[in-house]
Amino acid sequence: MSKLQVSTDVPTEVHFVRVFDAPKKLVIKAMTTPELIKKWMGGKRAVVTVAEADVRPGGRYRNAFRTHEGFEFAFVGTYHEVSDDRIVFEEQFEGQPGSSRITCTFSEEGGKTTMNMVMSFPTQEMRDQVLATGMADGMAETYETLENLMKQL
Fold first, then answer.
1. pTM recorded for the entire structure
2. CB-based contact 24:106 (threshold 8 Å)
3. CATH classification (class only), 5-152
């Protein structure tokens, strides 16, 4: 059973909740540090070939991937808010029109961190197209890799 809870109750949003067995500071560090992103973000499906992150309001990021079948793609975006418990950014599939706005909030209790993520899309059609890619399954797998990495840090 996946530790990632996914909800699509709002027509233009996807809500994710994931509890990590790690302190909030470590979770955020692993999610925003290029050297660490390369170690977890591709999961078992792809390797991260480029991880760039200027983690500040107005800063940009780019994460490029190569699947084991040789397919290459990247996500790019801009950070809007960055704090000790909240990160808001735009994300776009490089070279494709449209983007989503992602709001991540982090809370810690007893050494465990709960991440609440909301992906907001301009239309329900765009949200449904993104979901149809298997994105939620890939995220669940990737966050499992992230949690395993944090045990080593």
1. 0.92
2. yes
3. alpha beta
